[in-house]
Design a protein that fits this description.
This protein is an alpha+beta fold and about 240 residues long. It is built from four helices and 13 strands.
Length: about 240
Amino acid sequence: MSLTTKPLGRGRRVAAGSLIAVAALALTACQDGPGADASRSSSTAASASSQQSGGSVQPSGVTHPSSAGSQHASASAAASAGGRTGKPNAAESQASAMSASDRCTATQMSLRLGPADIGAGNIHYPLVFTNKGKKACTLRGFPGVSLIKRDGSSVGKPATREGGAGAVVRLQPGQSAHAVLHTLNEGVSDTPCWAASQIVYVYPPGSKEPMTTGSRGLRVCGGRFDVTAVEAGSLG
């Protein structure tokens, strides 16, 4: 007697498919073993960590935090170095020529205030530094200048800087350099004059030791009191 095979109905086909899927999953679980889930979890965590730390799967346009920090550190280092990335310029070369070992100190020099040069409502005084030592020394930049009375009390404010820092001045024994003090004639400005001073109190450029000399009647008027950088020569 022959058997006739009838096709499965739709409901039976769905049930058979489900049984096959369950069997496949069970077989995969047996092949993977107990460590498979842990491996897949580790892979997922690593992918998430890579995205957070700027790895190769990081979206474009996002800056890696460590990269941003490196750029900031580089910018800070450049700022600290004055933005220098190449060879030193002429001013730096001049500054390096004036090392601490050959800088003119207060103990090596004498100080005097030259006669006033009056004209067009302005008064200029040369402040003269002379090398009294036995070897050459150098000066560059601005002296710090204040006016005081004989009792040591200050008069007005310290002189403000006028102009550029200038070049290095090398003084052989006996040679001089000068800076120029400037104020105004009385009556040129409505700003009242300061009280009279008797002493000029000076810090040579680059020195922490002060020097003093007589003020020759120097009186600041018009609220103007400034000083230039040192130059070679004495101006009288």
